Spermatogenesis-associated protein 20 (Vombatus ursinus), 760 residues
Amino acid sequence: GMGLAREGTSVSGPSTMATGAKDHRQSHTQTQLQVPNRLIHEKSPYLLQHAYNPVDWFPWGQEAFDKAKNENKPIFLSVGYSTCHWCHVMEEESFRNKEIGHILSEDFVSVKVDREERPDVDKVYMTFVQATSSGGGWPMNVWLTPDLQPFVGGTYFPPEDGLTRVGFRTVLLRIRDQWKQNKAMLLENSQRVTASLLARSEITVGDRELPPSALVTSQRCFQQLEEVYDEEHGGFAEAPKFPTPVILGFLFSYWVTHRMTSDGFRAQQMAMHSLKMMANGGIRDHVGQGFHRYSTDRQWHIPHFEKMLYDQAQLAVAYIQAFQITGDELFSDVAKGILQYVSQNLSHPSGGFYSAEDADSVPEGEVKPKEGAYYLWTVDEIKDLLPEPVEGTTEPLTLGQLFMKHYGVTETGNIGGIQDPHGELEGQNVLTVRYSMDLTAARFGLEAETVRKLLDTGREKLKQIRKRRSQPRLDIKMLAAWNGLMVSGFAVAGAVLGKEELINQAIDGAKFLKRHLFDVSSGRLLRGCYAAVGGTVEQSSSQFWGFLEDYAFVIRGLLDLYEASRESAWLEWALRLQEIQDRLFWDSQGGGYFCSEAELGGNLPLRLKDDQDGSEPSANSVSAHNLLRIHSYTGRRDWMDKCVKLLTAFSDRLRRVPVALPEMVRALSIQQQTMKQIVICGSPQSQDTKALVDCVHSIYMPNKVLVLYDGEPSSFLARQLPFLTRLQKVESQATAYVCENQAYSLPVTEPAELRKLLLL
């Protein structure tokens, strides 16, 4: 099995589990119902994948809880998501098994959850699984009392007992018997565990007044990262390797504040090397662009092939910032490629963005889906597709030969035995850049520019042919949080590159959020919606309100969009959403934001605050940044106070393991250095205004706030920040002022002067 359905957490014994599962599958008891179960009424692609299981599945909700209470049965809760490999495996082996299905339907109330729809449910029970077993991951399978208290949990189970692992059927029978015989003890244990989880998961200001020192914390974070940095291949930790955009963002910020020190230089070098190695590796789809989820090896070579929206969004920003810092077009090319992939593959006509593309698809001439089938190439295929001779080389050469040399394609295939234990991928290749353009050019006596054009032609040809293959499944869920991240991706890249069409795509994304995921009457966000027939959008029957991350990521997207588009309506909406976020999620006792609303999670045993910047940043980290920016746009003291209180609540974790919260460490540094307010007085669309704005966007400044003042004293921004009305244009030209610590620079009208001022 290629890697595991996991997000930086461990699941015990992947190798035995992957191979063992294949051999004793009992195909004769596999069944798909003719008549679907009640999941057929759901909209989530992941839940629909279980609609024909011989299991009496319920979605998460009151109906299931009532049934468990009335019939006095434990709840079996199974959580996964559509691009999770081991979720597919377990569905096939266990949930299609008649006998297992019978036990699940008779002795339990079985509930299926898509963790992307209900991150709150996922987080609570994952906390339990991680605390009580050897790690967490997906599929996550937990048994609960009718009051939703967890008492047993685990991840993937093979269907039958093996040499090293207990089979799922056995586990079910044991739990059924325990529930009948020792129910009182189970309940008591469950309450004890829940109580200790509550105590352990509490994040609060306690008796502290202030957060820790930013200087010390960021130094410590840098040192912790340096310890796990891979000097040779870039990235952090051994295999599996994740792209970790939050870490790259931290390193950029660290470089800015430590520019004159060797540590600062080192931080920049670590980030740039990692980004280059990722861009060359198989984790990047060289044919269709975009990035796969993670690499199963240290070299970024063989990935887990699913593609997630949140990775594309964050990596587009990371690569465009790398370009801002270095001016190296390799980085801007990668960013453009990511956005082109999202436009072509993950965009809905309404302006929204889909969640993901699956790793598995059906190889040509076969019936069973295989991981990566859509992305792999053989020597023969490439020879046939690219037979053209290349002119002017030192030896006879076809485009195919040049292409295979550059991308490391070999006759035997370039996927090692560790990643391919069953030898199913013999002769198959993942494209990965082996040589620089210059080296490949020198090898054949060509110019580098010629090689670049030839490789472009080759990739385009492969892309057209690949479209005829069976496509990986698309998860057509559109989530507010991830759409917010993607709005940032298009807005930031569009601003840096000065490309209106990218900014327009960000605007379309924001319009989609406003039209489909915003409830006008209450001012609240919805969690998500789904693509329906003919380019329309539909809600699920059990529509969910937004969670903290939906607000935090959408607000960030809107702030980035305001700076890119200079349309203050987006800023106004961001401020209104921040007020709603404060009302629904702020912990007035302990500081910081809860992940979910009090009344919505009424039945869940815990109310948590996320304390890790992982594949997605923690919503608290993003909120800390948002509060700093919004404070600069409004001058409202209470938003700065909230930011300080939030950072103080996370003190312990920031002190001990800052590396778990690199995005929050960045916010802490900005809070303690103060923001740089750049005010440009000018009419929004005129050329001289644009020249100054482009100058601001060309420089990487993590602590900047860009304010455009059009000279209208009654405008939204002038009402928020009355001092704007005192700032004048000089000789009726667009004019910039830079403000730090309440002190203004002299006015400047020339971009070159502004640049000097900003780089001080």
Remarks:
- The longest helix spans residues 262-280.
- The CA atoms of residues 168 and 174 lie 10 Å apart.
